[in-house]
Amino acid sequence: MTSPTAPTRDQEPRLVVSRTLDAAPEAVFSLLTDPAQHHRLEPTDWVGEALDPQQGPITAEGQVFGIRMFHVNAGGEYHMHNRVIAYVPQRTLAWEPGQYDDSGELGTGGWTWRYDLEPAEGGTRVQITYDWSEVPDAMREQFGIPPFGPDYLERSLASLAEALGEDA
């Protein structure tokens, strides 16, 4: 069961959707913390393979993992490097996508992805949040932020369920 929350003018700009999955929090968290599996969490071909499939799991805040991305509006394939900004084992994983500049600094656009897990009867309640509250207005307009609605997050949770072996 999903419960979307669409942004309004009075709310902080974010989309939040939740679903209860038939998997233990440990199984869900293990999948989320494996960058080589992130393409399985996404309902389109936007997210591709990990840039370093041998990187291993995410284990702490501050880690950066790279993902191949594809979007026609971005000119095709590009790379995103995601800095982990929240990590609580079996409970929370969040990151801010960005790209490295010529000096080697990781710059981010102001949007974040966050997964919160809570044990539930027979499984795990997973809440996904896409937050663009720190995206500058000019960038919001240039890139059409947010580029999707709550249905995209609902489909992302269905992809997560399918990756865990459930019927979506």
From TrEMBL:
One Pfam family of this chain: Polyketide_cyc2
Gene3D superfamilies per UniProt: 3.30.530.20
Protein's name in the database: ATPase
Organism: Brachybacterium phenoliresistens
